[in-house]
Every structure is written in C-alpha cells, then in structure tokens.
C-alpha cells in the first residue's frame, strides 16, 4: 500500500477525489452556516444539507448501507425531532441577535486551535495512505449485514435495550408532573403567555 | 482516494461542531452541533473501515458497525436531550445555556427571565446545589 | 488470713470505698456516709490486727512482680516493720475520726459525696505509702495524696482564697516532687531496685556512689511534702480547705509522709554527712521561723498550720540527729493532738462564726458554748506546749534528748553540729510554742466583750470525736515511751533530766510571759472593736467556715493577720510581728524569684505567639483565601466556559503529547 501510495500524488486527483472534495466543501460550508447562522430554523435546514452531504460522502466511500441509514435516521428523523424541539421551545422565527453567547471568541480560539492541531496530525500521519476503492464495495448492505449479524450481534441487541431505555427516559422527562399541569392550567387563564412575551 | 481527504474533512467538521457547542446560546443549537461532531466521527470511522477492509486480510467491519451504533445512540441522545431541554424550558421559561447558572456562587434565583412558577423550582435547585 | 493479706486489704478497703462513693454518690445518697466511714474503720481494725501480728518483731516482707517493666523492676512489695505498723494505726485512727467528724461538719454540703470519696482515696494512698516496700509504688501513693490534697483544699472553690491555695499547694509540692522523682530514679539506678530492703542493704554494704546527691534530691521532695523550709509556704494557705481536711492532711498524715519517708530510708541519709547537716539546718530554720510566724497569725487555723510546720521541724530535727524512733514517736503523738486541735478549732469556728482570733477575743463566754471543744483543746494545747504529763512532752523530750545525745558526741550517727543546731533551735521553739499555744488559748477562750452568739449545740458526733482524740493526746506519750523502743530501733525514748528541765522550763516561761503580755494588752480590746463574722452562722459548720475565710480579707485587709492592738503576740514580737505575720516575706521572695520571671516569660511567649507565630498562621490562612477568591471568579456557572477551558487544556495537552512523541 505504501508502495502503491507513492504513485498517487495530490496534484493528479482522480474523479472520485474531485467529487469528494466538492461535496466535502459543500458539507463543510453547510456545517459552518449551521453553527453561525442567526436564524434558528435556518440552522436546522443547513444541518440537513450538511448531513445529506455526508451521506453522499459515504456513498463515495462505497459505504452505501451507512449512507442510506444516514439519510433515513439523520435527515429523516433527527432533524424533524430538532425542528419539533425548536417549535416546542417557541424559538423565534427570523433573525435573533443573541443566538451566540458571549463565549464566542473563546470558542473560536479553541476550535481553530484544535482544528489546526488535528489537521496537522492527521495530514502528517496519513498523507501517503491510499484507499483502494475499486473492486467490490466495502460497505454494501450484504457485507455490512453479514458482519453485523455474525460478529456484532450481542452489542446490537444490547443497543436495542439502550434505545428502549432512552425511549422510556425521554417519555418520563417530557411528561408533565401534576403540579406542572396545574400551573399550566392556571397560566392558561392569563391573557398572554409570559414566556412568549419574555422571549 | 487519499485517506487524507476524509480525515481532514472529518477533523474540520468536528471542530465546526466544537465551535457550535461552545458558542451557541440556544440548547437546541448546541444539540445540533453535537450531531455535527458525531457525524464527523462517523465519517472517520467509515473512511478508515474502507481503507482497512482493503488493506487487511480479514476484517470485522468494525468501523461500519460502530458507525451504525453511533447513529443509533445519537438518535437516542437527541431524544433524551430534547426531552431535557423541553423540561428545562418548561421550568425556567428559557433554553439558553448561559442563563442556567445555578452552580455559580452568589447566583440569584430570581433572574429577570424566570417567571413565578420557575422561581420555586430554581430556589429548590439552588438549595440542592448549595 | 495471713498478715500479708490483711496488710493488702488495709489500703484496698478505703480505695474501694472511694470508688463506690464516687459511683453511688448521686444515685444513692443514703449510702454515702456508711461508705465513707465503714471502709476506713475496717482499715483501722485491720491495721491494728497487722500491728498486733507484727508485734514489733521482724519486718514482714512480701513481694510480687506483676509484669516486667524494663530495666529496674517495679514490684508490688510490702515492708511492714514497727514504724509502718504504728504509723498505719495513726493514719487509720485519724482518718476514721475525720470521716466521722465530717459527717457532722459537712452535714448540709451538696458536695459531701465527692468530698468523702476523696478523703477515702487519700487515706488509701497514705496507707499505701506507709506499707509499701517499693519506692515506685510509694511514689504512686505519694502523688495520689498530692492530687487529693489539691482537690480537698479547693473544696470551697467558690472562694478565690481556696482556688489560689489549692493551686499553690499543688505547684509547690510538685516543685519538690520533681527532684524527688529524679532522686528516686538515681537511687534505683545505682542500686538496681526500687525495693527498700535492697536499698538499705546496698547502703549497709556502702555501695552507693553518690549518696549526698541522692539524699539532697530526695530531701527536696520531703521538704515539699512535709512543708519544711523553704517549701512550706503552701501549708498555711492550705487552711482555706475545710477543717477536717486540714486535720487529716495537713496535720496528721500527708505532711507526715515526708518525715516517714526519711525515717524509712534514714541509713541512706546517714551515709551523707552533708545531707544530715542540711536536714538539721532545714529543721532549725523551719522550727523557729514557723513558731514566730504562728505567734503573729490571726486566723486560728493558720496558727495551727504554722505550729504543724514547727512540729514537723522537730521530727526532721530528730531525723537529722539519726534517731528515727524519736521522730516517729513525735509523729504519732503530734498526729493525735494536732488532729484534735484542728477538729476542735472547727467546732470553735462554727460556734463563734469566725476564724479570727481577734474577733474571738471580743466574745465573752465562748468556752461555755463549746465545753467539749474547750476542754479537749486545752488538753491538746498543753500537749503541744509539751507540758508533762501530756503526750507531747514525752515525744518532744525524746527529740531533744536525741539531739543532746548527738551534741555531746555520744553517737556516730550524725555530726555534732547537727545535734547542737537541733538542740538550740528545739529549745527556742519550745519557748515560742508554749507562747503561741497560750496566746491561742487566751484569745479564744478568755475573750471579753459582747456575749458569744448562741448557734445551738454542736453535732454530737463532732464532740464525741474530740474526746476520742483527747485520750491519746493526754496519755499516749506517758504510756508508750517505754514500749515503743521495742517496735523501733531500740533507742531509749525516756526523757533525760537535763532536757526535761530545760524544755519544760522554757515552755513555762513562754506561757507565763504570754499571759503577762495578755494581761497587759487585753484591756485594749474593748477600745478597738473588730470582727469578721460569717453571714449565715446558723448554717452547717462547713458553710460557716467558708464564709469566715471569705470574710477575713475584706474585714482586716489581709488573710493572715488582723490590726489588733490587744494581741499579746504583737507586744511580744515587737517589730518582728509585721514580718512574722506574712511568713517572713517568703511569698514575696518567691514572687520575685519565680513568679515574676515566669510571668515575664509567659508574656514574652504570648507576645511572640501573637505577633510572630500568628503572622505566619494568618498568612497561611490568607494566601489560600486570596487564591480561592481568584479561583472563585472563574466559577461563573456558565457550562460553556467550563467546557471551553476543559477543551483548551485538552488541546494543549494533546499537542504537547504529539510533540513529545515525535521528538520535536
């Protein structure tokens, strides 16, 4: 592989690499917009773009099963959940000036520093490593399924228990207690919800 | 394909998510940033799994299996996380992380953003943390 | 039961009584009095039995070693010779009398249970000292007596006098006990044992290297315990305790422990001529000084206290002449009549409502109020003044005879100088003793002025005890001086003609001169009314006494003396009176020599502690405070800030780890 990698330079990219780079740029841009935009709903929508871009990257890496799972669960379920969350917390539609906390510059410093460190290390370690994408797909549904149900059955079943626990936990957490419900009833009598006014 | 491309993209996505976690005020936006970080890790896992499945004689496809697990756990996480954010929002009337400062010294439970029913809970919390 | 078992029971019974008294004192008040009296009485009976079995013959020795204790073995040893047997009887008799007397004297005292238990404990410790054949075990009893004395002197701890006196008694005796302990250890190191018999054997075989050093160190402890010059100052102040305590501890037993100790180890002291001379000088100074001071005191109990010091001086004088038979003989008779004097004084204080002789001399008919105390006290005072045929005469004459024996060079036991010192001082003291005894009697019972207050009859038990003690005061000397040599070393204790005539003569002179002086001065009494009287004369005797002691200083401006021109002592002593009243300024000397330097050192230490040490302490507290305040500013409660700091640190660490790993 190291010998083979010697013949692949960064200055002569293959088609897959070009496609990966372009989609990667789109994904990264969408991600940056997700964390910087001042409109909360837009952030959720840009997140959809970023996650979808990642699904494309998975496809380019021949991991097709992961890619479809990504589309199904992230784009389909998680983003919808987040949008519901935004709606239930009465997130304002439109630009909100205080979307970023005062911690922004510290966050930027830390993020840039860690990005520099990570990129430096990763590039330094893997600049000659080459992924052979020809041949049978590494992440086809058959391959993934076989490995999942041959080698990973026990963690898979344990994970189902975890998901069940998370399900129950989420229900318990979002249930209203009696006292809270009583409050809600009394608050319904007031002409306008205070929270909306405050927000 | 050079392994460096997905690896660098993953690192950059991770740091973007990191920035979001540290800089965003709304708890749901923070959760979204966490999703970004998780996805960056997933990309890393998939890329290295593809590379190793070619390089090694036998492989367990552990990278892809772990990616699937991560996705499942992320789904669970976002469910629980949103439930917590909703509960906090219901009790405090806000989901801004930098307003939840009960652990600080000299914390005033009667902040301007808290309404009447929230006061009792906040006071209880302040007592519990004190 | 064997003699050994009986002898072991003697100290054990009062100890058990004390423990039971302390445990049951609150829960079962009805048992306190029997628990106080009966064990002591039983111990007395057993002590008599032990003495009867021992019979003055060979000493009874019994040893058991509980456990090895290191280099020099400490053994539970009994060594009962004639001295021990007889002194134990004295201790038992006086302790029983005092316990009986206390049931009346502290009739209504709320602290009676602990008081009685402490007296029992004290009695037990004294028995231990008397019977013990091992010096370490003896020291245990010695120190228990010290601490009991501390508690009992401070029985009226509400009054500042009692508090100060108990502390003083404790500290001064401890001052002597430190060299005493060092001396004991040095002695044991040289001999290789704490056993008295072995030590005496080593002395007999002349194998001690430093007899003088050891003897002088031991003498310091003896001086502290037996109230000899210069460590006697605690005894007059200890009169702030209840009268029965004074009778038991400060007259008959504890102060006798030092004399008894020297008597036991006399061959050791005889091995050092210097120690004998020091002992003689100490005795002489003590005798004369205390007799002069006694003549100037106003508090009746302080007179008796100084007289105790003087009589103890006689005993140490006898020891200095190498005649322990005479010393212990005087110890026995003195124990009887001095206990009687104190107990009678307690009755008088109760009846008169005051402890001041000046106030008593202005009361008419006090003797008719307390006829029992009057007669018994007269007997005891005659014994004290050594008038034949009272017991004090025989014992004192035996002391003087021994001194004359040595002075005229008939013995090798002690240097002649010691003999002359003791003889001359003894005669002078005999004169002074008779003088202050007469003064006490005249002032207390021959008062003129207002009628003495009537507080009803004294408790029967108190009067009965007086008569019990009057018997030995009257007759012990005359009956015993022929028998005692069989129990002791065999020295003849019969009075010699020369010293008898001389001693009785000077005693008579002292008495007559004092009477004359009193006739001269008592007319002045009516002109200067004086008096300090207890606020509640109808209370029980202990309460009256406590109040009388507390009232003395406010009334007269001094604890010891009163500005009374009708006092014959004032006329007799002349310019010396002022100094004698305060014990020849010895307390002031101690204050200048020890108390002030110690206080100065203490204030220096306090200054250093406050200004130097505390600075560091405050800095050690303040620096973390500042750091904490700085760190606290970081605790904003904002989770994002925390995570930012955490991740920044992680990045730094990771980069550092990578740099180290790549060798950059």
**First-residue to last-residue Cα separation of chain C:** 96 Å
Low-confidence stretches of chain A: 1-5, 191-199
What is the alpha-carbon Rg of chain A in Å? 23 Å
Distance between the termini of chain A: 58 Å
Mean pLDDT of chain C comes to: 83
Structural class of chain A: mainly alpha
Largest sheet of chain A: none
In spatial order, strands of the major sheet of chain C run: 1-2
Task: Please mark out the parts of chain C with pLDDT under 50 across 5 or more consecutive residues, or reply none.
Answer: none
The CATH C-level class name of the largest domain in chain A: Mainly Alpha
Tally of alpha and pi helices of chain C: 28
Shape of chain A: extended
Q: How many helical stretches of chain A?
A: 9
EC number (chain A): 7.1.1.-
Organism (chain A): Streptomyces hyderabadensis
Enzyme class (chain A): translocase
InterPro entries (chain A): NADH_UbQ/plastoQ_OxRdtase_su6, Nuo/plastoQ_OxRdtase_6_NuoJ
Brief descriptors of the model:
heterotrimer; A: 199 residues; mainly alpha; Four Helix Bundle (Hemerythrin (Met), subunit A); disordered N terminus; C: 664 residues; two-stranded antiparallel ribbon; two-stranded parallel ribbon; globular
Write a brief structural summary.
By secondary structure, chain B is mainly alpha-helical.
């Amino acid at each position: 592989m190291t010998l083979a990698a010697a013949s692949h330079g960064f200055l002569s990219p293959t088609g897959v690499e070009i496609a990966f780079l372009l989609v990667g740029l789109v994904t990264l841009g969408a991600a940056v917009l997700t964390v910087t935009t001042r409109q909360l709903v837009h952030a959720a929508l840009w997140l959809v773009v970023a996650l979808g871009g990642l699904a494309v990257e998975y496809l380019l890496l021949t991991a097709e099963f992961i890619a479809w799972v990504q589309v199904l669960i992230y784009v389909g379920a998680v983003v919808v959940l987040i949008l519901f969350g935004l709606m239930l917390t009465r997130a304002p539609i439109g630009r909100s000036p205080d979307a970023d906390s005062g911690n922004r510059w510290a966050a930027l410093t830390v993020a840039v520093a860690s990005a520099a460190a990570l990129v430096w290390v990763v590039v330094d370690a893997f600049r000659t490593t080459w992924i052979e994408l020809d041949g049978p797909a590494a992440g086809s549904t058959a391959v993934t399924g076989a490995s999942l149900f041959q080698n990973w059955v026990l963690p898979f079943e344990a994970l189902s228990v975890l998901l069940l626990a998370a399900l129950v936990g989420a229900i318990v957490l979002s249930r209203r207690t009696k006292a809270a419900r009583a409050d809600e009833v009394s608050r319904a009598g007031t002409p306008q919800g205070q929270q909306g006014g405050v927000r | 394909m050079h392994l460096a491309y997905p690896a660098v993209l993953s690192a950059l996505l991770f740091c973007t998510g990191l920035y979001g976690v540290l800089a965003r005020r709304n708890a749901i936006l923070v959760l979204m940033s966490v999703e970004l970080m998780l996805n960056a890790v997933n990309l890393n896992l998939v890329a290295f799994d593809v590379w190793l499945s070619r390089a090694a004689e036998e492989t367990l496809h552990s990278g892809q299996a772990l990616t699937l697990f991560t996705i499942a756990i992320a789904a669970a996480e976002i469910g629980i996380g949103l439930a917590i954010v909703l509960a906090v929002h219901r009790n405090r009337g806000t989901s801004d992380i930098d307003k939840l400062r009960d652990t600080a010294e000299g914390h005033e439970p009667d902040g301007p953003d808290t309404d009447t029913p929230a006061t009792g809970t906040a006071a209880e919390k302040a007592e519990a943390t004190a | 039961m064997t003699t050994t078992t009986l002898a072991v029971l003697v100290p054990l019974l009062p100890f058990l009584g004390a423990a039971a008294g302390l445990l049951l004192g609150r829960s079962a008040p009805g048992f306190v009095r029997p628990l106080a009296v009966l064990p002591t009485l039983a111990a007395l009976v057993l002590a008599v039995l032990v003495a009867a079995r021992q019979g003055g013959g060979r000493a009874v020795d019994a040893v058991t070693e509980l456990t090895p204790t290191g280099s020099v073995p400490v053994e539970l040893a009994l060594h009962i010779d004639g001295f021990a047997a007889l002194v134990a009887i004295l201790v038992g008799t006086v302790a029983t009398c005092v316990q009986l007397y206390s049931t009346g004297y502290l009739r209504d005292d709320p602290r009676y249970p602990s008081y009685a238990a402490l007296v029992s404990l004290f009695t037990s410790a004294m028995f231990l000292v008397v019977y013990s054949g091992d010096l370490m075990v003896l020291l245990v009893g010695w120190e228990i007596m010290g601490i009991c004395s501390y508690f009992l002197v401070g029985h009226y701890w509400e009054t500042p006098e009692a508090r100060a006196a108990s502390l003083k008694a404790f500290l001064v005796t401890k001052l002597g006990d430190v060299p005493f302990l060092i001396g004991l250890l040095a002695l044991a190191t040289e001999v290789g044992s704490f056993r008295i018999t072995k030590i005496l054997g080593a002395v007999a075989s002349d194998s001690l290297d430093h007899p003088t050093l050891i003897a002088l160190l031991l003498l310091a402890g003896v001086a502290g315990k037996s109230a000899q010059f210069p460590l006697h100052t605690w005894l007059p102040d200890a009169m702030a305790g209840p009268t029965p305590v004074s009778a038991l501890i400060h007259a008959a037993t504890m102060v006798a422990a030092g004399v008894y100790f020297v008597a036991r180890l006399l061959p050791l002291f005889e091995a050092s001529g210097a120690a004998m001379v020091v002992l003689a000088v100490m005795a002489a100074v003590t005798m004369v000084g205390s007799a002069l001071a006694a003549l100037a005191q106003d508090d009746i109990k302080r007179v008796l206290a100084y007289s105790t010091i003087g009589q103890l001086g006689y005993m140490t004088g006898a020891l200095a002449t190498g005649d322990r038979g005479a010393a212990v003989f005087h110890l026995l008779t003195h124990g009887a009549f001095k206990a009687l004097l104190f107990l009678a004084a307690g009755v008088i204080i109760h009846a008169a409502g005051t402890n001041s002789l000046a106030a008593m001399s202005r009361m008419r008919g006090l003797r008719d109020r307390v006829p029992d105390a009057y007669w018994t006290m007269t007997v005891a005072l005659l014994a004290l003044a050594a008038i034949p045929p009272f017991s004090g005469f025989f014992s004192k004459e035996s002391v003087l005879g021994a001194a004359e024996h040595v002075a005229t060079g008939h013995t090798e036991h002690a240097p002649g100088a010691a003999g002359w010192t003791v003889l001359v001082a003894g005669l002078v003291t005999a004169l002074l003793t008779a003088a202050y005894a007469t003064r006490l009697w005249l002032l207390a019972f021959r008062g003129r002025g207002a009628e003495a207050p009537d507080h009803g009859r004294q408790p029967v038990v108190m009067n009965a005890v007086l008569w019990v003690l009057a018997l030995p005061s009257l007759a012990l000397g005359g009956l015993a001086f022929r028998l005692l040599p069989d129990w002791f070393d065999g020295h003849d204790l019969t009075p010699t003609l020369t010293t008898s005539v001389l001693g009785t003569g000077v005693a008579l002179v002292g008495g007559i001169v004092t009477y004359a002086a009193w006739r001269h001065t008592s007319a002045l009494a009516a002109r200067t009314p004086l008096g300090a009287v207890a606020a509640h004369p109808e209370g029980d005797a202990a309460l009256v006494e406590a109040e009388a002691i507390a009232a003395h200083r406010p009334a007269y401006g001094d604890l010891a003396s009163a500005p009374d021109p009708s006092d014959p002592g004032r006329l007799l002593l002349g310019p010396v009176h002022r100094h004698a009243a305060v014990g020849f300024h010895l307390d002031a000397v101690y204050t200048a020599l020890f108390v002030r330097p110690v206080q100065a050192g203490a204030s220096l230490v306090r200054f250093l502690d406050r200004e130097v040490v505390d600075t560091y302490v405050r800095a050690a507290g303040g620096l973390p405070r500042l750091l904490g305040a700085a760190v606290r500013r970081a605790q904003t409660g904002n989770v994002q800030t925390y995570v930012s700091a955490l991740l920044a640190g992680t990045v730094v660490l990771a980069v550092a780890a990578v740099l180290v790993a790549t060798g950059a």
